[in-house]
Amino acid sequence: MELNEIKKENNRWEQIANALNRNFEIISSSIEGVKESTSRNKGYFGTEDELVSLYPTSTVGDKAYVGQSFPYHVYVYTDSGWADQGKQSAGDERVELGEYYTKTEADQTFVSYDLEADEIERVEKTLVTNALRKTKQTLTVQEKLQSRTNIGAVSMDDVNKEFEAVMIGKATSNPSSILD
């Protein structure tokens, strides 16, 4: 897959757009080719002749559906070519469930918690209360000043003046007046 080079010195949008569009076409075509080569389902066909003319050979196990409407005939590619497997029924695809737990096995394996709504609320409140008791907030002078400006309790000019004064160690006003 060879893409078109988009030159930097070319400033004409029309030429750039055309090159981009050609690149997208090349990429799209390549993606479709990959999809086609990796798909086991070859699609739906009106007749067996249409299927065979488009896919005279295929990979063993590939599947195609032939007919005008549901239920379609399911064709599977075998060593000797396309073979009609009969009409499909609703849900003809099988899912192997051997590796899954049954309800009884799941109930025995996993612990379940059946809590009433008021019990859940009580547990949540306890967790939040304990978290708040253990969380002590400590803010720097800069963070306190920023929080005051965020809520509009003090102007940004006052904060900047106070912050500069604090940083050079010559606070002219009482910092607690802004921070409290």
Shape: flat
Number of strands: 4
Question: What is the topology, as strand order, of the major beta sheet?
Answer: 1-2-3-4
Q: What structural class should be given to the helix and strand makeup?
A: alpha+beta
Count of individual domains? 3
Order of helices and strands: HEHEEEHHHHH
Radius of gyration: 35 Å
User: Low-confidence parts, pLDDT < 50 over ≥5 residues?
Assistant: none
- Main beta-sheet strand count, sense and barrel state: 4 strands, mixed
How much beta, percentage-wise?
Answer: 5-15%
Q: Give the helix level as a range of percent.
A: 40-55%
Mean pLDDT figure = 75
Question: N- to C-terminal separation?
Answer: 68 Å
Count of DSSP-assigned helices: 7
Keywords:
3 domains; single chain; alpha+beta; 12% strand; flat; 180 residues; 7 helices; four-stranded mixed β-sheet
Helices and strands in order, then pairings?
Layout: H1 13-38, E1 41-45, H2 48-54, E2 63-66, E3 73-78, E4 81-87, H3 103-109, H4 117-134, H5 141-150, H6 156-168, H7 175-179
Detailed description of the structure:
The chain is α+β, with helices and mostly antiparallel strands and 180 residues long. It has helices spanning 13-38, 48-54, 103-109, 117-134, 141-150, 156-168, 175-179; strands at 41-45, 63-66, 73-78, 81-87. Strands 1-2-3-4 form a four-stranded mixed β-sheet, covered by helices on one side. Strand 1, helix 2 and strand 2 form a beta-alpha-beta unit. The two termini are 68 Å apart.
